[in-house]
Structures are given as C-alpha cells and as structure tokens.
Design goal:
The chain is an alpha/beta fold and 379 residues long. It has 14 helices and 16 strands. An eight-stranded mixed β-sheet has the order 3-4-2-1-7-8-9-10. The protein has a six-stranded parallel β-sheet with strand order 13-12-11-14-15-16, with helices on both faces. Strand 1, helix 1 and strand 2 form a beta-alpha-beta unit. Helix 8 packs across helix 12.
Length: 379
C-alpha cells in the first residue's frame, strides 16, 4: 500500500505523537508498504525508508513551541507524483488542511487521527473562551475525512459526543523488550535521586508545558519529604518548574531517549503523571512496561490502561491533594507497590506495536477497498 502522511509535528521535536509516527514508519518499511511524510521543515530528510518533505513553518502565537505550516502550502504536485492509495492526516490543524484539500482534489480516501486535546488545553492555557471554537474547527476538519481514529476509548466517546463522525479506535503500543524491569540500574537510581538511592523515587516523563500540570508534584514532595523526584523531559515551562522545585529533592534530566530512557523508567519506584487532558499517554504505557505502578488522573486516555487499585491509582483530575494520597499509599506500602509493578508489566506485555498497526492497516485496506468500489468501471 502507498500511504501519504501529513503531520503537524515530527523530529527533532520529541513527544508522544512523534514517537507513534516513528514506530509507524518502521512498521510500514518492515511490511513492504511505501510512504511519504509531509512535515514542518527543520528535521530529517528521511526516516526508516520514508522520504520527508519539509515545509516552511511558523510558531503558533498561543504556543510558540508548536510550529505551523500554513494550510495554503503547495503540496498537490508532490502528492500527485507519489500516487498514494490513501492519505493519513495526523493531528490535522494547519498542514493537515493542506493535505485534506490536496487529497480531495485528487479524489483520494482520507483517514485522520485525533491526537491532542487542544479544546481541553485552551482552559489550561487561560483561553477557555476558545474551547467551543476549537471543537467546531476540529470537527469541521475531521468530518471531511472518510475515517477518523481516536487513540483511546475515552477519546473516541468524547469525539462522538462532540459530533465527530466515522470514528474508530487506533490505540497505542509499547516496545516491551526495550522498556523492561531488567533495565533497572543502581547507577541511574543514584543519578535520578540526586545521590539518595534508598529514598522513594518518583518519576515524571513528558513535555514540560503548562497543560501537563507538573507543578502539582510540588505538593507531593512537600507532604512526603522522604520522597525524591526525577523529571525527564523539556519544554517551555522548564525554567519556571526549576524555580518552583528548587528547594526540593528534584532532579531535572532534560530529554532522554533509547536505553537511557529505559534505564530511567526501570530505576524508579512510582510513575507520577498529573496531566488530565491526555488522549492516550504513551509514557504511561512505557512506565508500565518498565514495571512501575502509575498514579494518574481519572480522566483522558490513561483510563484505558491504568486500572485503579490494580496497576496504580486514578485520582480526581487537577486535584493535588487526591494525588498526594494516592502516592502516599504506594510509598508506604512496598507490598502493594510490588504487586502493582507485576500487574503493570503484565498488562503492557499485551500491547505490542505490531498488533496495533496490524489493526490500523486492516482499517486502511477496508477504506481502500470501499473507495475502489466507488470508482467507475470497478468490477
């Protein structure tokens, strides 16, 4: 199958969307599919066997870290030369509109993937009055696609309740060989705990941005003074967070990848994830594969994978006191923590990327067959 992919973000930016795309491109190459990727310029020219078409991009005024390619960018000729069987729009916002229009002009089937809860984030950014406008805009884009994907059952139901049509589940997987409890390292535990390897070690992995609510972890450390925290990741909120956590037992590592990231996960005791607006939460699944119990909000896509009182605790969204109580239960009960570690690992082992992408390609084959059946002269 020949697949043209349009994404609003790609390497060198690091986040859950980029991680998913990288796994997808590897899968397509390994299974003999041909793909091309349209993305903001400034990154690679090729990933796996997929050529990357870099396009001029500009910072989004409300969120400068996010670069937008204007929707009027010229992509029609390159798309026509590639001759795809279908077009996949990942998190369409601006460049995705260009891909949508080009695909419609070429009469190609379109699949679109909803990855980021931007309507929900507007409230976190202080622009809650734009929430309904954001829903209207993304509904307009997605309802022009022949098939829409949501990464979790929670997000799928949310989209349907907002009037999105033709929505199916495209979940997320994890590399359970790389992210494994055996990657635990005393050297990494020393590093992440600031030289106190015997202290309870909490871990956060992800972008450091306002909407991720990492600041909630400050109360956890104030209430549980024996706990240490490692914050893995980077982003616009890092300077502010470093100031907020300056007097606490907190280590900021910046971005980690590959084996370094796997060591960090496996060397911690508890994964703490405050963000209440995740459409899935790739890092949560990586933590579970590494054998960590998870403390996360009872909201968003993480509720698909975190089983309350079995693989961790789900707390009231944006409620720091409730989060503290959940962390306390795990810090003070090593037996419960060990049991949840085993449960987390067991669940993660069932969610391989191979199975996830096999299901996705089955949807693509159905979409292509349906489109072919509509063409004149189809037998």
């Amino acid at each position: 199958m020949r697949i043209a992919i349009f994404t609003e973000t790609f390497l060198p930016k690091v986040d859950g969307i980029v991680n998913t795309i990288c796994h997808l491109l590897n899968y397509l190459a390994e299974h003999g599919h041909v793909s091309i990727l349209f993305a903001p310029e400034g990154g690679l020219q090729q990933y796996a066997e997929t050529p990357i078409v870099g396009l001029p991009a500009y910072p989004f005024p409300l969120y400068p870290e996010f670069k937008l390619v204007p929707p009027w960018v010229a992509v029609q000729s390159q798309l026509t030369r590639f001759q795809p069987d279908l077009v996949l729009l990942i998190n369409p916002a601006s460049l995705g509109v260009a891909g949508l229009l080009a695909a419609r002009h070429a009469d190609l089937p379109i699949a679109a993937s909803y990855n980021t809860d931007i309507p929900g984030y507007t409230e976190q950014w202080g622009f809650g009055y734009l929430k309904e406008l954001a829903w209207t805009y993304f509904r307009w884009i997605h309802n022009q696609a022949d098939l829409n994907f949501a990464p979790s059952q929670f997000t799928l139901q949310s989209l349907r309740s907002q009037g999105f049509h033709r929505v199916r589940l495209w979940s997320r997987g994890v590399d359970a060989q790389r992210f494994h409890p055996s990657m635990a390292s005393m050297q990494w535990r020393e590093k992440l705990s600031g030289g106190y390897p015997n202290a309870p070690l909490l871990l956060y992995v992800g972008r450091l941005a306002r909407e991720k609510r990492v600041d909630m972890l400050r109360l956890v450390l104030a209430t549980i003074p024996e706990a240490h925290l490692a914050i893995v990741g980077d982003g616009p909120a890092r300077p502010q967070l470093e100031a907020q956590f300056a007097s606490t037992h907190t280590v900021f590592t910046g971005y980690l990848k590959g084996d370094d990231l796997a060591h960090a996960y496996a060397s911690a005791d508890i994964f703490t994830f405050p963000s209440a607006n995740e459409t899935f939460g790739n890092v949560v699944l990586e933590a579970m594969a590494s054998g960590l119990p998870v403390v996360a909000p009872n909201s968003g896509g993480v509720t698909d994978i975190v089983q309350h009182q079995k693989t961790g605790f789900l707390f009231l969204p944006n409620n720091a006191e409730d989060m503290v109580q959940a962390v306390q239960k795990l810090v003070h009960n090593p037996v419960l923590r060990s049991q949840m570690k085993r449960n987390s690992r067991s669940l993660a082992e069932q969610r391989s990327w191979e199975v996830i992408f096999d299901q996705m390609l089955a949807h693509f084959e159905t979409l292509r067959a349906t489109d072919q059946a509509r063409q004149p002269g189809y037998p």
